[in-house]
Amino acid sequence: MDDALGLTAHPPADDHTDSPQGRVGPAAARALLRRLAEDQSGNRVPSIVAGIVRDGRLAWFGARGHLDDGTAPTPDTRYRLGSITKSLVAVLVMRLRDEGRLDLLDPVGKHLPEAPAGDVTVAQLLSHTGGLSAEPPTDWWERTPGLPADGLLARLSPDDLKHRPGRRFHYSNVGYALLGELAGRLRGVPWLSAVREEILQPLGMRSVIDRPAPPHATGYAVHPYADVLLREPEHDAGAMAPAGQLWSSAADLARWAAFVAGETGGVLSADTLAEMREPATVDDGDAWTSGYGLGMQLTRHAGRRLAGHTGSMPGFLATVWADPADRVGVVYLANVTSGVSRSLPLDLLDILAEHEPRLPEQWRPSPADPELLALTGVWHWGPAPYVLRLLPDRMLSLAPMNGAGRASRFAPRDDGTWVGLEGYYAGETLRAAPDHLDINTFVFTRTPYDPQAPVPGGVDGWEHTSE
């Protein structure tokens, strides 16, 4: 393949160049590679790799810079993931939840009795809202050998609870050390063994390891005022490993991006993955652009709602973002302590959208149950008109006619009711009758306050008044 276009020399086995699901075209590939080259050159990055994932496949791979042996990195070169490790730990915890082994509202002390912050819940640890200290009460843990779990737990104290649990977002590496230990105890094996067996192997992520092994990049810091390098240390982080220990190739990180976008491979149910991608907290105000779900960082950009995670360890930077709505993702890995532009992965997505925007799915007619078809049309919440539409698979959509107000889709249940999927009506029940809709006691009628419908409070009829 043409390296000048930034295409991988070793594409995935199922890559189809003649398919819109295959690799990107030459113009897009050139623009993507140019953006990557700008960052590597302008920010003096020893080596950097990036990939675009589309419809579950690695559609583009680019690499700039060189490894210690003078060769260019490939899709199989390992870099350290840093905090992307947290998302893998979170998936393991959610699997335990789905099996009934724990509840997200469980206090941590139920599973780790010696933890000083025992009242903090599992959900709060997952979303960094437990109030725990960001870093452990040890030496700089990213640059020194770590303690075993019992040693770390012995050092933690109530002083490491910095905020009231649930009060605010406060990123905590310590919290994920606790989650890793908790998951390991419930599984009866070290957390990493469970992650390998239950997540990495089913997804085919065979390059992911906890310590560097060939082929891998060496982590460096670049001097701010000279073009010289400092080799960064690398150690086993011990009990802190769930916060940032793992290494991966770009090819396997691309598979993880596909997972976050919805290609779960049976590791999680689609509903559980969607739950992880829901914002549990935001960290930049009311009109949020950055937030956190359950083990997933979240951001909004150019109309996209992205989920994934960033990663940083001495000598390495990494990011993975995925857009489930568009089934597209982006990844990058670099062997530098600092310097890669924060905007790089989003810029790559923007370039893809500019050169190869996804075409809307073709509309096709769908069969309709006559009884459901009769429900469609205008309904009124009091005097306000709403429109009910029938969607495929017996789903319903209810939205204000003027576009402003509460709107939701509703999924059918086996008992003949529907459940709200988003917004104000998420989780609420819709019941339908020929003359009215009931959504958790709110009655919608065919005409404004129809006196023939069971409107709570009664309807006396409309009247004209004048002064």
TrEMBL record:
Residues 369-446 form the DUF7586 domain. InterPro entries: AmpC-like (IPR050491), Beta-lactam-related (IPR001466), Beta-lactam/transpept-like (IPR012338), DUF7586 (IPR056008). Pfam families: Beta-lactamase (PF00144), DUF7586 (PF24491). This is Beta-lactamase family protein. SUPFAM superfamilies: beta-lactamase/transpeptidase-like. Residues 1-24 are annotated as: Disordered. It comes from Nonomuraea montanisoli. Residues 35-339 form the Beta-lactamase-related domain.
